[in-house]
Amino acid sequence: MSGFFDIPSDLQHSWLGLVGLHLREALLPVLAGLVVSLPLAQLCVRLRWLYPPVLWVTTVLYAIPSLAFFVLLIDYTGQTELTVMIPLTVYSLVVLVPAIVDGVRSVPPETLAAATAMGFGPVRRYFQVQLPIAVPAVIAGLRVATVSSISLVSVGALIGNQGALGNLINDANIYNRPELAVNAVLSMAVLAILADALLVAVRLLLTPWMPRAGRRRPAADVPDPATAALEDAVR
Amino acid sequence: MFGVLIRIDSVTKRYPDGTVAVDRLSLEIPDRSITVLVGPSGCGKTTTLRMINRMVEPTEGTILLDGQDILQQPVNTLRRSMGYVIQNAGLFQHRTILDNIATVPRLLGWGKDRARGRARELMERVGLDAALAKRYPYQLSGGQQQRVGVARALAADPPVLLMDEPFSAVDPVVRKGLQDELLRIQAELGKTIVFVTHDIDEAVKLGTMVAVLRTGGRLAQYAPPAELLSAPADAFVEDFLGADRGIRRLSFFPATGLALLTTPIVAVDATAEQIAARATGEAPYLLVTDLDGRPLGWSEPHELTAGSIDPGRLLSHGRPFVPGTDSLRAALDCAVLSPTGWAVAVGADGRATGVVSQQTIAEAIRGAHAAVPTDAPAPHSLAKGGPADAKVAG
Amino acid sequence: MNLLHFINAFFGDGAHWHGYNGIPTRVGEHVGYTLQALAIAALIALPVGLVTGHYGRGGNVLAMIAVAGRALPTFGLLVLMTLLVGFGMVNVMTPLVVLAVPPILVTTYEAMRSVDPSPVDAARGMGMSEAGVLFQVELPAALPLILGGLRSGAIQIVSTATIAAYVSLGGLGRYIVDGLYQRDYEKVVGGATLVAGLALVTLAVFWALGRFAVSRGVRQRA
Question: Residue limits of the ABC transmembrane type-1 domain (chain A) (predicted)?
Answer without folding.
Answer: 19-203
